[in-house]
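Ticket #4471: structure output looks truncated?

Reporter: J.K.
Steps to reproduce: submitted the chain below (296 residues) through the standard prediction queue, then opened the result file.
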Amino acid sequence: MEILPFLLWPFIASLILTGIHAYLGVHVVERGVIFVDLALAQIAALGATIAILVGMSPHGGGAYWLSLGFTFVGAGIFAFARTRRGHIPQEAFIGIAYAVASATAILAMSKATGETEHLKDMLVGNILAVDRHEVIKTAILYGAIGLFHYIFRRRFLLISTDPAAAEAQGMSIRFWDFLFYASFGFVVTSSVAIAGVLLVFCYLIVPSVGAMLFADRVGRRLAIGWTMGTLVSALGVYFSVLLDLPTGATIVCTFGAVLVVMFFIHLFFFHGGKVHPLEGAVSSHGPKESLVERTP
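Returned output as attached by the reporter:
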């Protein structure tokens, strides 16, 4: 019982991460921009590096807002990188942005060797170090972003699943893409500081992929994703304490193990040994049914 207070706030933080990232993961998987969070996280890290170079505290408000500003620049790049004909995949621009931001951050860190440990902490994360104040602040921020997405949920879902239909309705794809990536940037900038890049990536992608094995409606996918994220968080924290392992890495490995189990359950019990394409999934084999029409 003595370890329960020690694990309480990290576990609550993992639940908050599950709530927002499982939802954003639905959009990311539908758009086919799987590594967008890694790219935005690296751009945010570049902003933090520049903040340190100009003399700001790595944990101060100035460094956070500068990182967020860099993330907004990345959001603008990704929003305008979606070409109408799609002759250049958007993922290519995302990969290029990640590589350039990583190289630039390495160059910048070579000039700030005394502060590289702070940057390592931001990239690797330490979810066990979160406290009550940080959890409450993150919950308020993510709640506001969640409310924003709920208000405009049909627009965001339509652009993610059927951009041609959205454009036919007169919607500005690039404007709404920028709003999506900008709000995504708020989440990534805060989440990476808490949990690190790998864990944030798993919270974003794995619950959505696992949910797609069993559901093709947004509501059901979210329910499965949130349930999966909650159970994996609890198991990961428990195993990390039981086996004395790093918490973030343990949760990442638990995500992988649970996803493998879900895949075999889907393979052998739901489709008779054969996996069929899912409605609403990203596909290059033809038009897909819009998730907006099936949103509860």
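Triage note (M.O.): checked the attachment and the full token line is present. The chain is about 75% helix and 0% strand.
Status: closed, working as intended.
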